[in-house]
């Protein structure tokens, strides 16, 4: 393998995975979902909801961009704004049932793709890839926090 090729292979693999996942979930009726939405869904799912500013900080975008993203997701029925439990002036963005179902389908489709990869290279090889990538992420985390968010 040529020097510098591994980062490109990692990026291309991620892109191919995301393209297939989005194509398949769109065919199931989850229209308009883009990779940035997935990062927002993941954050909201883990946190149980978040303010727009907090979501924007996580995604690395301005408050205005986060508001636009939430507006779009709300129009499509994936999230809703609810009153904040302790601050009457604030609103919390939470996933709707449709948003949670979309996440469930993404997880299921991703598992099907992983199974195909296991058939392609062998289960042991796929486990080795997973272990190696996990070690790379753990090593990176010793220098600075590693978060799952878009690379703008």
From TrEMBL:
Domain HTH marR-type: 3-138
GO BP terms in the entry: response to stress
InterPro entries named in the record: HTH_MarR-typ, MarR/SlyA-like, WH-like_DNA-bd_sf, WH_DNA-bd_sf
Gene Ontology MF terms in the entry: DNA-binding transcription factor activity
PROSITE patterns: HTH_MARR_2
Pfam families: MarR_2 (PF12802)
Coiled coil start-end: none
PANTHER family: MARR FAMILY REGULATORY PROTEIN, TRANSCRIPTIONAL REGULATOR, MARR FAMILY
Gene3D superfamilies found in the cross-reference section: Winged helix-like DNA-binding domain superfamily/Winged helix DNA-binding domain (1.10.10.10)
Cited SUPFAM superfamilies: Winged helix' DNA-binding domain (SSF46785)
Name of the protein this chain belongs to: MarR family transcriptional regulator
